[in-house]
Amino acid sequence: MAKIIAVCKSRKKGTSKEDIREGYIQQNCGLADDAHADSSSHRQVSLMAVESINKMREKGFDVGPGDFAENLTTEGIDLASLPVGTQVSVGEEVVLEITQIGKECHTRCAIYHQMGQCIMPEEGIFTRVIRGGTVKSGDEIRTGKNGERDRENPDSAPYRRKQKQP
Question: What percentage of the chain carries pLDDT values higher than 70?
Fold first, then answer.
């Protein structure tokens, strides 16, 4: 089962976030009281897989949930394989829509300067909030239209990003 393992926020952009374990995601805005919450942005809530964070740990970095400024740290779902437009349901209430995979770093962020490397540009995803609600560690994550599983093939991700052409 794919799930949320951390809910993270910060009051300042470009810094690591603190795991608050539970928070309220506002419709068309983001995580309440987080510096990145913005109704005019398509990057209202960010997600990062703990599996990606573990890759950095294997390289010797002392990192954990929130260190890459993600709002939600996930486990058991290949976030970077989900295409833009995929809807992701979290817990009983929240529905997010993927709007961007990775981001371009024109200038190195504070996280890069602290760690010397950042995985958010390649493995983080950004979403807009379709339906708000409470989110907490342990909440199940579902993907597909309105967050429903692919009924014909429930064991596979219903959507895949197209492979880059050579």
Answer: 77
